[in-house]
Amino acid sequence: MSNTSSKHSEDKPLTVPDIRAMKGSERIASITCYDASFARLIDQTPIQLVLVGDSAANVIYGLDTTLPISIDEMLMHTRAVAAGLTKPLLVGDMPFLSYQPSAEIAITNAGRFLQAGAKAVKVEGGGPHIREIITKLIEIGIPVMGHLGLTPQSVHRFGGFKLQGKNASDAERMLAEAKLLEEAGCFSIVLEKIPSKLAEKITSTLSIPTIGIGAGPSCDGQILVLYDLLGLDPGFKPRFVRRYAELAGIIRDALSRYASDVMAGNFPSDKESFR
Ligand code: KIV
Fold first, then answer.
1. Is residue 29 in contact with ligand 1, taking CB distance under 6 Å?
2. Atom 1 of ligand 1, nearest CA residue
3. 94 CB near ligand 1 (under 6 Å)
4. Per-residue pLDDT tens over the stretch 192-211
5. Are 126 and 150 in contact (CB under 8 A)?
6. pTM over 0.85
C-alpha cells in the first residue's frame, strides 16, 4: 500500500467511488473542519477526505459532549466548509437525533447536508435500527459512512469516552456490525478508540476502507480533529492525538503583542492608516 502521495489527479474533486477504490492501494488522509478559512488551507494539501464533525460541539461551541449540537448548526458549518473546498470529499456528520428517530427524518436531514455541499453523510452505530436507516439513505442515493467503536453520541451508555471492543464478545459484535454496515452499502467506516488488533481484523475483513481515530496503524486511513492536530487546546492531549503544531502559544503570543501595541499607541502606524 503506497502511503506517500495520492494517485488521484491533482485537480479533480474526489468522489465517493474514488475513496472506496483506495482500499488496499492508497492510505486515506482525513481531517475534520468547521469553517471556510481552514477548508481553503486543507484544500491546498494532499488531504483526501474532510468531515464536518459533530466534534464542532466540543471545539467550536465548547461543550462536553456532541449531544447538544443541532442539525441547523451542523448545516451552517457544512456550508462554510463546502465554500472553501474544491478537491477533498466532503462528508457531513449527522448530529444526535437528526437520524435516529426514523428513516424519513434521516432522509430529510441527510438531504439537507447534501444541499449544503456535502457529498455523503456519517452516522454512528451498527445495530439493526441504524442499519435499516442507512439502507434507506443509500437506496435514495445518499452515500453513507459508518462509525463504530467509541461513538460519542452514545457516551452516556458507555459511561464516558472509554476504549471500546476490549472484551471478546464486544469485539465479535463490532466485527459482525462492520460486516453488516458494509452489506448495507456504507462506502467506508470510521473506527474510533478501539484496540489496534480489532481494527486490523475489521480492516482486513472488509472490502471498504476503514478510517481510524485511536484505532492503530492498520486502518486504511486516519482522521484527527483539526484543532487537536494543530494544538489549539494545550490542555487536551489524548494518547491517540499527534500534534503537528503548537498553535495555541503562537496565537496567544500574536494576540498579546497586538494588545500591547494598541495599549502603547503603536498600532496602527502611518503606513497602516489612510490619508
Ligand atoms: O465528530 C467528529 O469529529 C468525528 C471524527 C472524530 C471521526 O466523528
1. no
2. 53
3. no
4. 999 999 999 999 999 999 99
5. no
6. yes
